[in-house]
Here is the input.
Amino acid sequence: MQLAKVLGDVVATHKDASLTGLKLLVIQPLNADGSSFGRALVAVDSAGAGVGETVFFVRGKEASFPFHPTEPPVDAGIVGIVDQVHVPDPLPGNR
Amino acid sequence: MQLAKVLGDVVATHKDASLTGLKLLVIQPLNADGSSFGRALVAVDSAGAGVGETVFFVRGKEASFPFHPTEPPVDAGIVGIVDQVHVPDPLPGNR
Amino acid sequence: MQLAKVLGDVVATHKDASLTGLKLLVIQPLNADGSSFGRALVAVDSAGAGVGETVFFVRGKEASFPFHPTEPPVDAGIVGIVDQVHVPDPLPGNR
Amino acid sequence: MQLAKVLGDVVATHKDASLTGLKLLVIQPLNADGSSFGRALVAVDSAGAGVGETVFFVRGKEASFPFHPTEPPVDAGIVGIVDQVHVPDPLPGNR
Amino acid sequence: MQLAKVLGDVVATHKDASLTGLKLLVIQPLNADGSSFGRALVAVDSAGAGVGETVFFVRGKEASFPFHPTEPPVDAGIVGIVDQVHVPDPLPGNR
Here is the structure.
């Protein structure tokens, strides 16, 4: 999973029927220190998240698990709202 | 999911039988602000999208869900046409 | 899915038993304009493709769908041979 | 799978119900020589790992296998604590 | 699938129970011309590979297929040992 900040939402009238009623949020991935990285993406929400909150999200088919037995065609889903991240001794990441 | 613009389509006579009748579109991934990024790819369409429209698409096996019980071998599928993206306070993404 | 060109093939005597008889091709991913990008990879073929042809391929478990009920351990598969790509108005991709 | 070092943990009160009781750790991917690379991420732990330990983790739906028959929506999971890595003759990796 | 060279192995006493008895190898991805790229990773072996050999490996849940009906939590697996790669006319890859 990765940390992310909720930036906004997406409105889509024409969509796959199994997406009806799902909240589609625009999220920005974050590093452990809260800095942003990578591209904003669209995720479904199963944690009750709102704009401005820090969350963690899952990628892949796993994003559809909270909606079983429905299998909406989603590949990113917010599964928790973060209260705190404890990282006593961060390593420098390089890419 | 990611935002994308529909650029065109692909014609393929010789293909896996389960792909027969599916619409194959060339799409360009977009950032939340509408700028393009990354590589164009080929996606199946289950939302009735056309060239020039902004859509959101799903990656992975999830792209085949709208065609159940058929399981076409696809890894990218357009699942919604975007009416509007609301992002009140975008963060700068870096890579 | 992504466009690709078939570059060659791989010969492997010792391999997982479920791969026996499958054609393993080396392919190079292509952009919508036919230029190459990224790394060459090894894909199974279920479309009858040959060296030099332009194809589209699928990544992930989906690559094994054409071989059901066998589930060979593959993560890339050629699923169609491209006749034509129509992209009336390409956007500049950036990475 | 990839090698990683455990950096810390994440506290989240509001989350998908199937995540209740799972340990969520912040981990930093490592190269075979122990140097760090890429972004820190959040992983569930099924190996009893603690902060400072070197582990290996799995990405994707596979991360949920240790919790069967529950299918928590996770895409990264620590599945082993590393005692030793033997690499007699490393190749230079380039990206 | 991708080509790779086997660099070494990983010893882990504390691990998910379904990994017991599986051989965990450190592998370095290779281009079609035999040059290395990207990061070394840890893969399970179902082809009987040894240090120094050139192999091809699969990513994702597919890596667990050779161990059915057991579903070990693995995301990379060596599925064949390469005898020869034939690439008559390589395209220049760019990234």
